[in-house]
Design brief:
Blueprint (H helix, E strand, L loop, with lengths): L1 H8 L5 H16 L3 E8 L2 E8 L9 E3 L4 H8 L4 E3 L25 E9 L2 E10 L7 H32 L21 H14 L5 E4 L6 H10 L8 E5 L5 H9 E2 L11 E2 L1 H4 L4 E5 L6 H13 L1 E2 L8 E2 L3 E6 L3 H6 L5 H7 L2 E4 L9 H17 L3 E4 L1 H9 L5 H19 L6 E4 L1 H4 L2 H5 L16 H19 L4 H8 L3 H10 L13
Parallel strand pairs: 7-14, 7-15, 8-11, 11-14, 16-17
Antiparallel strand pairs: 1-2, 1-6, 2-3, 4-5, 5-6, 9-10, 12-13
Helix pairs in contact: 1-2, 1-4, 2-4, 5-6, 12-14, 17-18, 18-19
Amino acid sequence: MLELLIADLATDIPGALRLQRMVQLVARYFACDAVGLLKLDDTVLRIVAASGLSNDTMGRHFVIADHPRFARILASRSPIRFEPDSPLPDPYDGLLDDKRGLPLPVHDCVGIALHLKGIPWGILTLDALQPGTFSEQALIELQRCSLVLESAIRVSELEEENRSLRLLSTQAASHLVQNGSTELIGASIPLLNVIHLLDTVADSELPVLLLGETGVGKELFAQRLHQRSRRNQKPLVYVNCAALPESLAESELFGHIKGAFSGAQTDRAGRFEAARGGTLFLDEIGELSLSVQAKLLRALQNGEVQRLGADHPIKLDVRLVAATNRDLNQQVAQGAFRSDLFHRLSVFPLTVPPLRERQNDVLLLAGHFLEANRSRLGLRGIRLSHAAENALLAYHWPGNVRELEHLISRAAIRLLVDAPDRNQIFTLDTDNLGIAPAVNSCIPKAEAKPLSAWQPLRQSVEQLQRQLIRQALEQTDGNWSLAARRLGLDPSNLHKLAGKLGLKTRPETVTHD
């Protein structure tokens, strides 16, 4: 087997494919049921290649402190074997790619730490359902294999660094390091295309406009952009424009001086000043009023801001990243968004793909959220049944990644309520997910009056919006958060829209659900 592993080192193939092939060779040679190659990322281990593990496992991040087996493997320079009766919980319990969809615990386990230049890189784990699979000779062979694997990992990382440096020749090498908090989980072509564009523009000073439906994770894209820019040692300041009351938006963004208005008892810097030298991320920028848009345009054009009530402007060096789920072109045409500001912001627009267009990414994300809930709830293990996987893949995800995250969390809690024994392997089925009817069901017909004929388009649109909001509220017993989810909106945006349409009697008291 060593000859086959070494042969792959000389093969010109993508690094990820090389590692996957090596993992499969290891699985065949040792006749085990599952092999996982996990990379150390601060305090977590994340799988980069696997054989014999369930589909959702690839999206999981294992917190080392929660998994004593992984901690022991990392701490040793020699292979570690865990006996079938080991009291230490097995991180892969229920995660083997069992064809019957039944959660079977792993019986025989070995692992070895991998190092690059003397620094821990990650671990290789081998698991078998048959006790006694791994002999003393197998451990010796595993030690030899680990040396070849370390070489393969080094070759793959060098190739990736060379590609990145050719793309971003002026960017410091430290910028290329993956940051766990900003990692975008997925391997689909639509996602990788956007990430490639994002990484390309990150090193420039161009403003970036992130477009996409609600819940697609635009904030994570903004974080990645900042981390890969030359400003990554400076602050990234987040502003949710939809949550800013119009009366306070100017003060929040640009600051104010003492006495500028009633209640302004001290000088206060705005978000622009807080982002000095770094990046300012304006989420839901389409919600800003026209008056605030005008002042934002001046700040972008002149590179300066003026605090409310102040006589002199303040020069600032800030990169702007904006995001919206609205059609700004349509808003410009309707006079709700300034065309000059739109053109200033959309120098480099990027559309984040909705989850339904990202193929199997839904299973990787589901695995990530399953592991997060397993850790948070203190469960031995939690996985998806094959039927649940198919249901997730068939669902249309109007709320995108955010909806998937909430769905997994609710399903995990419901399982725990029904079976409070945390020391078992839980399996989420379609009944737990509660989305099976939505896969094939038709959209219900609205019991509402027909739209009036020959009225202006804007009135027709507003009339239809009122009908849909009323229908959603009726179906959710007046629950604004659930209604917003059904309509594919953030609750704050739904409240604001309802106020504009006259569906709320006191819009000035609206709060977030």
